[in-house]
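2.7 Reproducibility. Because tokenized structures are sensitive to small changes in the input, we list the exact sequence used for Arginine decarboxylase, including any N-terminal residues retained from the expression construct. No trimming or masking was applied before prediction.
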Amino acid sequence: MTASTSSTPEPAALPARPGAYPDGRTPLADAVLAVARRDIATFHALPLSHGRSIRDSHMRETYEALFGVAQLAADVSYSGTMLDSFFRPRGPLREAQRLAARSFGADATFFLSAGTSTANRVALTALTQPGSRVLADRSCHQSVHFALNSLGVEVAYAPMQRCCDGCPRTYADLPRLLEMFRAAAAEGRPFDTVVLSAVSYDGVRYDLPTVLTELASVHPTVSVLVDEAWGAAHRFHPRLRPLTALHAVETLRAADPRFALNVAVTHSAHKSMSALRQGSYLHLIGDGEAQERTAQALFQHHTTSPSWPVLASLDLARLQAETEGEALLGRSLGLASTLRVELATDPRLSAYRPLGPDGHLTDAAQLVSDDPTRVLVDISALGITAADFRRMLFDEYALYVARESGDAVLFHIHIGVDEATLLRLLDALRTIQRTYRSASAALATGTSEHFIIAYPPGIPITVPGEKLCERTLSQIDELRSSGCEIYTLRNPTVSARELAVQAAVTGSVPTTVDHLPARASTSESRTSTSESRPVECRTEQLAGAAAAVSAAGTTAATVTAAATAVVTS
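Resulting structure tokens (single pass, no recycling of outputs):
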């Protein structure tokens, strides 16, 4: 073999159990902190380090507000003997990687500061050769597809399947994947590498012990990449650990010392652990040659300017997971369970329908199960789109939900979600239901009790007593799609039946001046009166109300909530 371009991490001595580490060391984080505390002037690169290039700049305050003085000091550009070499680690980085390998149960662990997309490319470069045959899970991340497309390999994809009609999640058809793997081996053309996406974005976990056992029994020298990006923290809780890739390998090794698979596992540490964004682990199970190929692939694909704060955060995240991970994940599991129970039992949350873990992914033959830290919720009963719902949570309640799938949104109850955060979410969900259940009721076919107004231009589409038909509802959908906001204001004094009778007899529509929320939706206060008088519905009043609402920056949800408050007061 030719001389190594880079050195491999020192093999890790595996502990008896995860978390059994009395020393509590974070060698890389300590080393980065030590150089950050020194006022070192650099003649190399990174003028921003220690804030030197902005000390007299009018932009200094903005920089420090965004990044903080400590972050600017820690973002350094030292390598080699000054701190450590990223590609030939001999000092604190090497020790930090050794501790991480011991913690996760790997033969070697590499730290990356360029994200798991890069980690997947590194792993596939190491595990494949031009012309080799690869069987890939079709649901894998785009980085896997891009890498395979450029490596000169022959790729076959296992198909995907949908959970069921009531749940929009998709995942690999693992029985079919194993069938394809067995058939190829029987034909004398076995797959050299298999790629699996073990924990999906929307909460599907693979039965890796069963899958890896089958792969090893059919073709003992196959290489496997497990993209476990969303499951890094799962290693550190007994309920979640059994389905993790590295634990599955440990179990297989214990049962059969001849186990010889080369297995690479990638973790987006920042997705489930306390690591900075783009912090990623690449774990390897395999012989020295596999580790050397991985180290050389890292040299080919990773930036030569790694972020030392990101790398240091991987060291810190590992120690926190060892010492506090089980308790933190236990809290996450409890909060996720609480959210499901509240959605299923609280009448004020009846518009939300949790999808799983009960009733979905319960067929063991499919080799998949629910990730209990994720709660997928159907919101279709609200009468608004999932995109609008996400935007409302972000804009009005400072709550961010990243994933939508059809009429469902996904809540990831990670270790950064605490009891207070969950209470904020539940309060927001109740408020939104009060608002939009009323609005949804207004958009039912039949005789309407509401003013339904599109703004702009602020002209009623219907007034109380008029019929709502499918054609009108289609018109409302078109207006909403074109960017109009739809306001629904209920007449609180007269039932739909009475309105229909009065409209048929007199041709007029009774309403109350106090019902129009032009002032109620602004910062001005108003004393309501129980006295009402019939008036003709005036378009300019409704337009003025909507304009005042728009000028005040108030949303349709707030308008409807105000109208509902009038009704119930």
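Residues 232 and 267 are 5 Å apart (CA to CA).
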